[in-house]
Structures are given as C-alpha cells and as structure tokens.
C-alpha cells in the first residue's frame, strides 16, 4: 500500500492517549490534547507532533501534501478489535424472532445462529467472500476504522475455515485497512458433529489448527467458551494446543451466562477476553492482575436486549477496557462506531476520554499492536481520523451520527466523507 508524506496542520485539537501498551484503570481517562496542532508524516510514519507554531518553522511544506484542518479535531484511527466480517448469508429472520422474544440460545437450538451462517459461508466462493469483505471494509473506513480484527468460525470444517482466513489475507494485502486474523474454529459444533463435541475438538486439534499454524494464516486462536457451546475445560484444551503451536490467545467469555471464561483468560495469559456481560467480580479482578484486555461489545448487548457489560466497574477495578463492534450476521449486524460510542458513554457510564482510549490504544493492545498503532506519537504508523467538528466531545454529543470527515491510513487519505 502507499505510504504518504503529509502535513496535517492547524487542527483545533489533536487528541490521543499515549504509550505503547494498554492503559489500565483510571489511566484510561488520560488524553494528551494539543491545541492548534500539527502532525508531520514521512513515508507513512509520524515524524513530529506538536503545536503548529513550533513545528511548521522547521519544515518546508512544499515537500509534503498539506491538509489544513482548521476547526477540526484529529484522533488516532479507530481499531475495531473484534469482528466476524468475512461471512456469507444473512439472518434477518432470526432478528425478527429475537424481537418477538426468542432467546439467542433457543435460536441456536432451532438450527439457527452460527450454524445458519456456516451454511451460507460454506456455499460462498472465495471471490464472493472477498467482494463482500471489501465492501464491509470500505464501510469501516468511512467510520474511521484503520485496523480491524477478523475471525474465521463460519466454516467449522477444514476447507471453509482456511477459505475465510485466506480471504482476509488477500484483503490485508490489497485493502487500506490492516487486518489482524483470528482462527475461531471452536465457534460452535457443526451439525455433522452434533452430540460428538469431543470428536469435533479432536478434529480441530489434529487437522485444522496445525494447518492454520503451519501456514501462518492467523495471529490468534479464539474459542466461544459458553454454556452449551464449549466448556471451560474444552476451551482450555483448545487454547493450550494453540499456545503450543505459537499462537496468541483470545476468548469469547461469559457472554450468555457466568461460566468462568474471564478467569480462564487470566489463567492462560490471553491477550484479550471479549463480551464479558456476565463476568464475575473474581474474573474481572483476575484479568486486571494478569493484564488481559477486557474487550466489550455494547452493540451486541443492544441488539440482543441484554444488560451491558460492567465497563465502569471494570475500569474502576483496574482493567484495561477496549471497545469493538462484534460486526457479524447474527447477534450484531452493525459496524457503527457512532452507535458503539453512544452506548459506551450513555449506558455503560464510560467517560468520553475512556471510550476514546478503548477504541484506539486499548483496541490496538487487544490485538497485540499497541507498539505501532493506537496513538498519535512519533514513530507510530500515521493512521488518523479528522472529525468535522473542533472537539472530540462531539463524538457522543452528535449522537449516533458519523462525524468522521477524513480517514488517513499510512499518511494517505483513503476515505473522505465530505
């Protein structure tokens, strides 16, 4: 992809967390704010950040593309650290069922849910999945997302799991958005293995996971640790094998019931545990102590009409909280950053500053990339968002509306909503 030489000058404010690792607890509220700020970018890397007055005297603007951001706020590019964006087929009928009161687990028992998406994804060609993925990434760019995590898990067989990951590989090479790939073969037990969960686990451990690791198709291994899906013991078995094969760990934890997924994530040293709607006090304490990022997905709770994860409690008890959309065809068919931001600040009692940290630096930490993205600092990748308004406080104030004017990736303007 192109790497740009760019100066963005005269910004009303540059707003960013600082650091190369996750912010925990009250640190999440600390943002560095530079009034009348300028960012200098060379070869896609941030070279200088400061006030316009102190920076521009040292540079010849003719050597750069220049954007005058007067009256605009600049933030780091958003990191959507939990999505399932490569899939085939849709589940609009199931959404209607949920509106009439049918539970998520009951839909799964009817043959819907994840298994429904498996059929659509198995049937889709690699080209179809690529084109759908590209369209969805373009939408993410418009919301200011510059890095996204994508999971497999709608194949639940060898060929389709590899197909999903290879599509993400190709998109990562050809699309501006950077993609972190996660293997989620343990997303559900497919219909052909119904009642034979351990046989399915053995298949994943002996045939699929080693191939994914050998071909370097995924950065992480994830498991849906949930009642009626994979138990704590089963999840531990899968994750330990992935760790042995050199993969980093994630965990869908305590989404539907309190099962102990948060505690397991801390025990195994997972990079993140996600969902956490029903995480116990002990699980939250364990994650904080172990340095596990707590990735919260408020749009999914919203769509499922479930209580939100205890973001305020987690931050007050020393956790590093990230926010992500969980964009998927079933429980949360939305990649709306404005909706997620509104839910986090209005209903989860996170401060605006904490939510920004959660969507930038801590999102980057949740995929192991906080050393290179997630903040506007010298030496990091030049992934920026220019807002249409002069203050970051417009993010929740202009409620549910996309106020991103430009998205900059590696110092190149890759999306303009003007």
What does it look like?
The chain is 37% helix and 23% strand. It has 418 residues and is of the alpha/beta class. It folds into 2 domains: 113 residues, Urease, subunit C, domain 1 (Roll); 287 residues, TIM Barrel. Strands 1, 2, 3, 4, 5, 14, 15 and 16 form an 8-stranded mixed β-sheet that branches.
Condensed summary:
With 418 residues, the chain is an alpha/beta fold. It contains 16 helices and 16 strands.
Fold topology:
Layout: E1 6-16, E2 32-42, E3 45-51, H1 52-56, E4 65-68, E5 73-76, E6 78-80, H2 92-99, H3 104-109, H4 114-123, H5 126-142, E7 145-151, H6 158-174, E8 178-186, H7 197-214, E9 220-225, H8 232-244, E10 248-253, H9 261-268, E11 272-275, H10 281-290, E12 293-296, H11 298-304, H12 311-316, E13 320-323, H13 337-347, H14 352-359, H15 361-365, E14 384-387, H16 394-397, E15 404-409, E16 412-416
Parallel strand pairs: 1-4, 1-5, 6-7, 7-8, 8-9, 9-10, 10-11, 11-12, 12-13
Antiparallel strand pairs: 1-2, 2-3, 5-14, 14-15, 15-16
Determine the strand fraction and express it as a percent band: 15-25%
Strand tally is 16
Write down the overall geometry: globular
**Residue-averaged pLDDT:** 96
Biggest sheet overview: 8 strands, mixed
Helix and strand composition category:
alpha/beta
Write down the CATH topology of the largest domain.
Answer: TIM Barrel
Query: What value does the Rg take, in angstroms?
Result: 21 Å
* Uncertain runs: none
* CATH class bucket of the largest domain: Alpha Beta
Q: Could you name the CATH homologous superfamily of the largest domain?
A: Metal-dependent hydrolases
What is the tally of helical segments? Answer: 16
Q: What share of the residues lie within helices?
A: 25-40%
Which CATH architecture of the largest domain? Alpha-Beta Barrel
Amino- and carboxy-terminal Cα gap: 23 Å
| Count of domain modules | 2
């Amino acid at each position: 992809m192109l790497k740009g030489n760019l100066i963005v000058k005269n910004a009303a404010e540059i707003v960013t967390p600082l650091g190369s690792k996750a912010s925990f607890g009250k640190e999440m509220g600390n943002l560095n704010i530079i009034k009348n700020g300028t960012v200098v970018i060379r070869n896609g890397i941030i070279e200088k950040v400061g006030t316009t007055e102190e920076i521009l005297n040292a540079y010849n603007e003719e050597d750069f593309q220049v954007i005058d951001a007067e009256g605009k706020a600049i933030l780091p590019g958003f990191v959507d650290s939990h999505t399932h964006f490569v899939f085939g087929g849709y589940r609009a009928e199931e959404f209607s069922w949920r509106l009439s009161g049918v539970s998520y687990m009951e839909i799964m028992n009817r043959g819907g849910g994840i298994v429904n998406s498996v059929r659509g994804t198995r049937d889709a060609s690699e080209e179809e999945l690529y084109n759908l993925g590209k369209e969805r990434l373009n939408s993410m760019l418009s919301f200011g997302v510059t890095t996204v995590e994508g999971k497999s898990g709608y194949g639940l067989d060898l060929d389709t799991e590899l197909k999903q990951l290879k599509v993400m590989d190709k998109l990562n090479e050809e699309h501006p958005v950077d993609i972190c790939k996660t293997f989620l073969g343990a997303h559900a037990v497919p219909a052909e293995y119904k009642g034979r969960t351990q046989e399915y686990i053995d298949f994943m451990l002996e045939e699929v996971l080693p191939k994914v690791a050998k071909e370097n198709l995924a950065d992480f291994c994830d498991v849906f640790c949930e009642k009626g899906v994979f138990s704590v013991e089963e999840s531990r078995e899968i994750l330990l094998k992935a760790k042995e094969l050199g993969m980093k760990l994630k965990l869908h934890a305590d989404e539907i019931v309190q099962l102990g997924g948060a505690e397991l994530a801390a025990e195994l040293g997972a990079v993140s545990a996600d969902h956490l709607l029903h995480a116990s006090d002990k699980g939250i304490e364990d994650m904080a102590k172990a340095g596990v990022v707590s990735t919260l997905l408020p749009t999914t709770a919203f769509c499922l009409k479930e209580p939100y994860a205890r973001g305020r409690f987690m931050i007050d008890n020393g956790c590093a909280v990230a926010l992500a959309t969980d964009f998927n065809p079933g429980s949360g068919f939305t990649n709306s950053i404005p909706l997620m931001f509104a839910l986090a600040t209005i209903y989860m009692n996170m401060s605006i500053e904490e939510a920004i940290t959660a969507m930038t630096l801590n999102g980057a930490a949740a995929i192991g990339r906080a050393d290179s993205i997630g903040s506007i600092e010298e030496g990091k990748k030049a992934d920026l968002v220019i807002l249409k308004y002069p203050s970051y406080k417009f993010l929740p104030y202009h409620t549910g509306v996309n106020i991103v004017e430009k998205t900059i990736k590696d110092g190149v303007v890759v999306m303009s909503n003007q």
